[in-house]
Amino acid sequence: MQPTPDDEPRLARIGWSAPSSPQDVAPPQFLARVVAQHRAGYQLHDGEATFNAQPAAKFLRRDVDPVDRPAVGDFVVVAPASPPTIERILPRRTELKRGAAGESHRRQLIATNVDTVFVLVGLDGDFNPARIERYLLLIHGSGAVPVVVLTKADTAAGADTAAAELRQRLTDAIAVVAVNAKSAASVAPLLQWLGPGHTAVLVGSSGAGKSTLTNTLLGEARQATGAVREHDSRGRHTTTHRALILLPSGGCLIDTPGMRELKLTGDEELDEGQFADVDELAQSCRFGDCTHAGEPGCAVQAALADGRLDPARWQNYLKLRDELAAAADTLEAQLRRKSESRVLTKALNRRLGEKYGRH
Questions:
Q1: Is 242 helix (H, G, I), strand (E, B) or coil?
Q2: Which residues of the chain have pLDDT under 50?
Q3: Residues 117, 213, 120, 150: what is their CA dihedral angle, to the nearest 10 degrees?
Q4: What's the angle, vertex CA 263, arms to CA 261 and CA 266, rounded to 5?
C-alpha cells in the first residue's frame, strides 16, 4: 500500500511518528491504533473515528503469551468485517511492562509505543521516593523517557522542599515537574512531551491525580475523578481500564488504573539508568566479593560515610537488587520449563509419527 498525502496527518493524530505510513498494508486492510481494551473486545481509532473490533482467532489461543496479544497503544492491521478484525500487530517501538500482580510469574503490558512515561506522585501521603525509583527501574528498559510529575503542589505543606530533595536523589537526566493538576497553566510544562506524533502514559497510585491531570490537558471533564482518603492519601480506582485519548495539543495520552502492586519483571538492569552510579560504586571495592558490610577498601561504605551516597537510596538499591535476582531466577526457570516442554512435545510427535505414520 503506497502512502497517500492524507495518510500521514491522519496517522499522526493517533500518534504515528514514523516518516511514512507502512508499506505492507494491502487494501482493503487498514491501519488503526488500540485505544481501549474491554472484556468484549477492543476499541480502535483510525485517525478519524473510533470503532469496536475483535482480535483474530490466533490471538485467543490459550498458549499465546498475553504480551503477544493486542494492547493499548499498539498499531494494528485491521481487516474489514462485521465486526472488524485485528489481523496483525505492527512492531512495537517501546513496551512498558510489569510483573503480573499476585503469584503469577507472567509479564503484564501497561502500554506500548509510548515516548514518555509520566510517573504521577502526590505530594501528600502518596509521596514515596523508593517507590518512584521502582517505577524508574521498570521504565528504563522500556525505551520510553520517564518524567516524574509531583501533583498537589498547591496544597501540600513543604512541597518545594520535597521536590528539591527528590531532584537531589534522582539522576540529573530525569525531569521532575511539580504541578497543580487542576490548573491548565500549572500543567503547561508537560505539553513539551505531548506534541503531534507523541504519546505519553500516566502511571501512579490511585488518588495521585491521573484522571484530574487528563481532564485538565483535555480542557474538559471526561475522566471520572474521586476523593482521596485523608488517613492514607489513597483514592478509589476511578479509572477502571487503560484508555488512549487524543489531546488538543496533538499528542496522545494513555490513562491507566492506579497500581497497588508494582512487581519487577526480571528483565530490568540495575547497572544502568537510575542506579548506574550505585552499581559503579559497588564494583569499585577493593575485593571483588565485597559484601559492603565493613570490609576494608569498601567504596560503598566510604560513599555512605562522606555523604556521597544516601543511606535510604542504598537500602532501596539492595531491596530492588534482591527482588530482581529472585524475579530473574523465576523467569529463567519459566523459560527453561517452556523450552523443555517444547522439546518433549517434538519428541512425542516424532515417536507418534514413527509408530503410526503421518499422512
A1: coil
A2: 1-3, 5, 226-239, 359
A3: 120
A4: 175
Instruction: Please state which architecture CATH assigns to domain 95-255.
Output: 3-Layer(aba) Sandwich (3.40)
Nearest residue to 233 via CA among 158, 125, 149:
125
Q: Any residues with CB less than 8 A from the CB of 288 and at least 6 apart, and which? A: none
- CATH node for 273-339: 1.10.40.50
Q: What's the pLDDT tens digit per position in 1-32?
A: 344 545 678 888 999 988 776 777 888 999 99
Helix (H, G, I), strand (E, B) or coil at 98: strand
Rounded CA separation 324/29 (Å)? 42
CB contact set of 302 (below 8 Å; sequence gap of 6+):
none
| Predicted TM-score of the model (pTM) | 0.83
Q: What does the domain layout of the chain look like in residue ranges? A: 7-89, 95-255, 273-339
- 10 Å Cβ neighbour count for 143? 15
155 known ligand binder: no
**What per-residue confidence (pLDDT) applies to 73?**
97
Is 151 labeled as ligand-binding?
yes
pLDDT at residue number 258: 74
| CATH code 3.40.50.300 for 7-89 | no
Is 263 annotated as belonging to a binding site?
no
Q: Is 204 annotated as a binding residue?
A: yes
Cell of 338: 517452556
Q: Is 330 annotated as a binding residue?
A: no
Rounded to whole angstroms, how far apart are CA atoms 75 and 315?
A: 40
Determine whether the annotation assigns residue 112 to a binding site.
no
Provide the pLDDT for residue 37: 93
Q: According to the annotation, is 282 in a ligand binding site? A: no
Cα-Cα-Cα-Cα torsion 344, 104, 37, 74, nearest 10 degrees, comes to: -60
Does 252 count as an annotated binding residue? Answer: no
CA distance 106 to 109: 10
